[in-house]
Amino acid sequence: MNDLPRIGIGIDVHRLQAGRPCVLAGVPFDAAVGPVGHSDGDAVLHAACDAVLGAAGLDDLGSLFSDKNPANAGRASAEFCIEAMRRLGERGLRVLSMDAVLETEAPKLAPHRQAMRAKLAELFAVPVDRVNIKGKTGEKVDAIGRGEAMRATVVALLGPV
Ligand code: MG
User: Fold this and answer.
1) Neighbours of ion ligand 1 (CB under 5 A)
2) Fewest 10 Å CB contacts: which of 52, 56, 72, 144?
3) pTM higher than the cut 0.85
4) % helix / strand / coil in the chain, to the nearest 5?
């Protein structure tokens, strides 16, 4: 029953705070602000995990790794990706392609965009030319535009292994 492609979407918002470490799509940024979160707050990887888990018909990231569990405090989100991919593999599924948008005023993504793309490709076991990520600002509108938060949206296409 897994022979047809499956699409999934994940959306994740994190508040931004001065002095927080900033890791986005698994890539460390030297930035004045970083996402607040129980884990490392990597909104891109959280949205990516929810996209692949959703497409596979599996429970979402919050159910797998509760923010009430102290074991997940400060945890590198790359570990969530490894577990999501393990569960995908159990279902005989793999990621065929992924596209991500990160809306934020800061930091600027352009200098690290290719590194983020390569890291997503590595974590989700897809060729680099089947993964993309782009940055958008919030045009001064709402919490994102005021620099109070960032939002990642990721779509993922899955197919059989
Ligand atoms: Mg999150």
Assistant:
1) 12, 46
2) 72
3) yes
4) 35, 30, 35
